């Protein structure tokens, strides 16, 4: 099953943002899942990551954003979320929350569902590391890894590969958590022929569009003012107070865009290109050479004036930005060029994010804190998921052909 | 630059280029400034009498002494007064080593929580005065002579360090391993020119370690500024970013100090117990944890018998899986070199943005019955270099695809909690499958430390005379 990334963006009633902020922070969702889980995230089996946060815009005022990274389709997910809510408190928590948003006058969960579906934004471009892996699959694979790891033990006494393999099979068949799941074949990550051809066409069209518009925009791009301000120390502190409680972190950035027609068109082409590249090339757990991101996406909001970026990644923010600037500066420049104040770029590909510290400061200044963050598997990194997936694959192959003991290297 | 003389630069403090191998004993005095005027008078005196050692002095002869000085943010603020521009410094330096977030990042939690430090939890010092001599008494005498109320300063903490080397054997840290082998090689030094093969792996532009020179991006690193009013005598050059201000950072470097106690008994007991009944000897397990042999030779596929030639390996081609030097070992986490055969060049370039120049010494405190390392390192950016190594590499339980483990030497073990398993393992890749160590205790614990800036000599003059 393929995954879906989306946000619901709702304008906050004037004057309510402060109360919303306090209310959300007090729920205590930043570290591990709180015992009281009023959103019910922990009980929704199709949910990988979710977050709730606020940002403000000079023209449009404050917005409440509800970000979700899920298996399958949006409506089914909202149905399961609301089913949990119904069980928990009849939906009171969610309805009260959204009562602070403009345009929501309903009293029931079906009203809220309509309200949210009307405000869904699908990303301009998004990235998923574990393509086609459901949350259940990820947790099942983690259990397979655990069982295999336990059988191999410390390895002080070395078993012969065949013996180890036989013991592992036996344990996997015996463990209630793994006995039905470890032999399930993998869906694979290939986009398939039809989507593949579509993506190639998308790549070609957008590459042409991009080449033309990037050229046309070269002058505004070069004269745009770069903003080299250092982020305020207290701003950074206010953000860092939510970081590094777990080895996985969350980042929200809301950038101001140069939103004239020419540059916005160039941006849309750039995202079309990124989208196609992700489908065609980056479906094997690596975004370029970056292997720490679970889910990330870009979406243009506020009638083209704001660019929202949300990412769920492993390791510290510093190492994340380091990966960005040292390993994939071009991709980032493609994604963020024409952001107001962005480090000077050329053709939306050169310069920009490659200017390490300047980009890092710019990124910091664009961030807003995450008030609520849910993660289904905080102790597993994107690379661990990939490894576990390969392990299951290797074990299935070995089951068919016992001489294939190479999976032993993966544990 | 590029001159023969870079390691003899008269404006750079001596400790940057040298570990003072002939001066066995060091005293590190952490001081507070109680009288600004007297302190400035003392600093001026030190400079006039050329007591602060510069790189120009070269390697010290036996029987001589060396002094160096560095300041915490509060110290520079006190001495520069109105000329102190906090935004121009690196944020970690201004904030200090102890903030809630920084502790999470650096692994200063659980056993290493500042609550358990012996000193420095409040970061209540303005500067660090370092004295090097031939005996502990001599070092202590130097500290006592200088850090006194006549000079406007009081000592709030003292720790000592010494070298532990032997002519043939090299430096040994407290677990008994050879230390001080792998260091970055600074462009423009004779080492850089004479050792082209090593320089290809360890060479960094001077600006990675010393402010005022281009760094790995080819541009000048950010550098502290003072207002022009603070430098009426014109000791300093104009600041490159804000030409109306002056460059206080030139020829200076950020200094990180951490006193790290080592549980040597616990370490060897642990590897002895872990080795019982297995193929590996206790020594082999210990060596796998460090990532080098005890005698300092490398764990690479083709170990050189030549001990002087033991730093030419990387992990891209010969040891991608870590079957020689484990992926999670201390030296591989703290310097991953080049990894991945396809990304060899790019990954090395990334790594070279995260090198540090180590100048630590071992210590032995008979009264406390404690041994360990007075860890000192220099870097142009604490966040990008020291903190990155300590936090994003050594204490990252997801480092390079690993899980539930941190650096087995300097990582902070985590108890289970927060919905997560314990983080206390170490994986040793091997045929036909890995060896795994479990339940590793924390062997290295933090006792105190801080962030400092060690200015160049002209900058010291400015600090001493700023109105
Ligand atoms: C008591 C604590 C520590 C002990 C016992 C220790 C021990 C060692 C040893 C035995 C080596 C190999 C010798 C060499 O290459 O010089 C080494 C290398 C190194 N250590 Fe540590 N260390 C400690 C703390 C630290 C800390 C706190 C850091 C920085 C965060 C650090 C960073 C490094 C680096 C960068 C290398 C060189 C790696 C390379 O380039 O191959 N060490 N350490």
Structure description:
In chain A, 44% of the residues lie in helices and 18% in strands. Chain A has 411 residues and is of the alpha+beta class. In chain A, the strands form three sheets. Chain A has a five-stranded antiparallel β-sheet with strand order 4-1-3-2-11. In chain A, helix 5 crosses helix 6 (161-174), helix 5 (135-152) crosses helix 14 and helix 7 (193-216) packs antiparallel against helix 10. The radius of gyration of chain A is 23 Å and the shape is globular. The two termini of chain A are 26 Å apart. The mean pLDDT of chain A is 93. By secondary structure, chain B is an alpha+beta fold. Chain B is built from 13 helices and 15 strands. In chain B, strands 9, 10, 11, 12 and 15 form a five-stranded antiparallel β-sheet that branches. In chain B, strands 2-3-1-4 form a four-stranded antiparallel β-sheet. In chain B, strand 11 (361-365) and strand 12 (370-379) form a beta hairpin. In chain B, helix 1 packs antiparallel against helix 13 (457-465) and helix 8 (264-275) packs across helix 9 (282-290). The model of chain B has no long low-confidence stretch (mean pLDDT 94). Chains A and B meet through helix 9, helix 11 and helix 14 of A and helix 3, helix 4, helix 11, helix 12 and strand 14 of B. The site of protoporphyrin IX containing FE has 27 residues of chain B, from strand 9, helix 10, strand 12 and helix 12.
């Amino acid at each position: 099953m393929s995954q879906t990334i989306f946000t619901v963006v709702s304008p906050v009633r004037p004057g309510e943002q402060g109360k919303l902020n306090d209310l959300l922070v007090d729920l205590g969702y930043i570290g591990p899942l709180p015992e009281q889980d009023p959103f019910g995230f922990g009980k929704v089996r199709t949910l990988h990551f979710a977050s709730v946060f606020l940002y403000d815009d000079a023209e449009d005022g404050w917005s409440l954003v509800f970000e979700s990274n899920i298996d399958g389709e949006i409506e089914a997910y909202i149905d399961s979320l609301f089913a949990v809510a119904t069980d928990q408190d009849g939906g009171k928590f969610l309805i009260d929350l959204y009562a602070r948003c403009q345009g929501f006058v309903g009293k029931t969960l079906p009203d809220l569902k309509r309200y949210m579906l009307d405000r869904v934004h699908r990303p301009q471009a998004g990235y998923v590391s574990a393509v086609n892996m459901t949350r259940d699959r990820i947790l099942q694979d983690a259990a397979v890894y655990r069982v295999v790891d336990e059988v191999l033990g410390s390895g002080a006494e070395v078993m012969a590969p065949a013996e180890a393999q036989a013991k592992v099979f036996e344990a996997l068949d015996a463990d209630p958590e793994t006995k039905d799941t470890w032999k399930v074949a993998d869906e694979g990550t290939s986009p398939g022929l039809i989507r593949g051809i579509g993506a190639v066409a998308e790549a070609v069209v957008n590459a042409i569009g991009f080449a033309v518009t990037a050229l046309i925009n070269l002058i505004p791009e070069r004269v745009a003012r770069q903003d080299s301000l250092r982020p305020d120390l207290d701003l950074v502190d206010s953000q860092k107070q939510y970081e590094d409680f777990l080895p996985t972190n969350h980042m929200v950035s809301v950038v101001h865009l140069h939103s004239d027609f020419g540059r916005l068109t160039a941006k849309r082409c750039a995202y079309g290109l990124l989208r196609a590249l992700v489908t065609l090339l980056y479906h094997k757990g690596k975004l370029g050479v970056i292997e720490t991101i679970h889910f990330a996406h870009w979406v243009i909001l506020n009638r083209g004036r704001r660019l929202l970026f949300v990412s769920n990644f492993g390791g510290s923010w510093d190492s994340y930005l380091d990966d960005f600037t040292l390993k994939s500066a071009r991709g980032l420049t493609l994604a963020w060029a024409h952001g107001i104040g962005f480090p000077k770029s050329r053709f939306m590909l050169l310069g920009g994010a490659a200017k390490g510290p300047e980009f890092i400061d710019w990124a910091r200044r664009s961030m807003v804190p995450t008030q609520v963050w849910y993660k289904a598997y905080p102790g597993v990194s994107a690379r661990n998921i990939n490894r576990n997936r390969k392990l299951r694959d290797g074990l299935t192959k070995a089951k068919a052909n016992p001489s294939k003991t190479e999976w032993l290297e993966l544990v | 630059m590029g001159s023969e003389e870079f390691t003899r630069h008269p404006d750079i403090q001596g400790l940057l280029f040298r570990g003072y191998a002939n001066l066995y004993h060091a005293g590190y005095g952490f001081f507070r400034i109680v009288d600004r005027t007297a302190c400035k008078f003392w600093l001026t005196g030190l400079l006039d009498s050329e007591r602060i050692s510069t790189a120009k002095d070269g390697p010290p002869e036996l029987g001589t002494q060396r002094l160096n000085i560095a300041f915490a943010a509060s110290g520079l603020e006190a001495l520069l007064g109105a000329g102190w521009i906090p935004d121009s410094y690196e944020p970690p330096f201004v904030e200090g080593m102890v903030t809630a977030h920084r502790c999470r990042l650096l692994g200063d939690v659980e056993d290493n929580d500042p609550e358990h430090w012996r000193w420095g939890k409040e970061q209540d010092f303005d500067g660090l005065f370092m004295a090097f001599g031939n005996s502990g008494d001599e070092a202590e005498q130097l500290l006592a002579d200088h850090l006194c109320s006549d000079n406007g300063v009081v000592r709030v903490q003292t720790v000592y360090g010494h070298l532990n080397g032997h002519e043939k054997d090299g430096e040994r840290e407290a677990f008994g391993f050879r230390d001080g082998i792998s260091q970055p090689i600074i462009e423009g030094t004779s080492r850089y020119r004479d050792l082209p093969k090593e320089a290809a792996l360890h060479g960094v532009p001077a600006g990675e370690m010393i402010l005022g020179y281009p760094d790995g991006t080819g541009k000048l690193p950010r550098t502290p500024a003072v207002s022009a009013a603070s430098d009426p005598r014109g000791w300093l050059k104009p600041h490159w970013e804000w030409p109306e201000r002056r460059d206080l950072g030139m020829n200076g470097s950020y200094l990180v100090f951490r006193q790290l106690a080592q549980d040597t008994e616990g370490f060897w007991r642990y590897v002895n117990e872990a080795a019982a009944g297995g193929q590996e000897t206790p020594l082999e397990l210990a060596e796998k944890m460090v990532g080098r042999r005890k005698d300092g030779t490398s764990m690479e596929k083709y170990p050189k018998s030549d001990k002087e030639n033991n730093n030419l390996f990387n992990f891209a081609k010969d040891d991608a899986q870590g079957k020689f030097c484990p992926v999670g070992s201390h030296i591989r986490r703290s310097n991953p070199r080049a990894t991945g055969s396809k990304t060899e060049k790019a990954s090395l370039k990334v790594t070279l943005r995260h090198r540090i120049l180590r100048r630590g010494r071992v210590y032995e405190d008979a009264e406390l019955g404690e041994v360990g390392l007075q860890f000192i390192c220099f870097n142009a950016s604490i966040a990008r270099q020291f903190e990155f190594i300590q936090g994003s590499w050594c204490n990252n339980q997801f480092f390079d695809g690993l899980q539930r483990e941190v650096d087995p030497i300097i990582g902070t073990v985590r108890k289970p909690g927060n919905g997560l398993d314990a983080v206390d393992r170490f994986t040793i890749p091997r045929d036909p499958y890995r060896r795994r160590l479990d339940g590793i205790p924390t062997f290295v614990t933090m006792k105190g430390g801080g962030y400092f800036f060690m200015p160049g000599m002209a900058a010291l003059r400015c600090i001493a005379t700023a109105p």
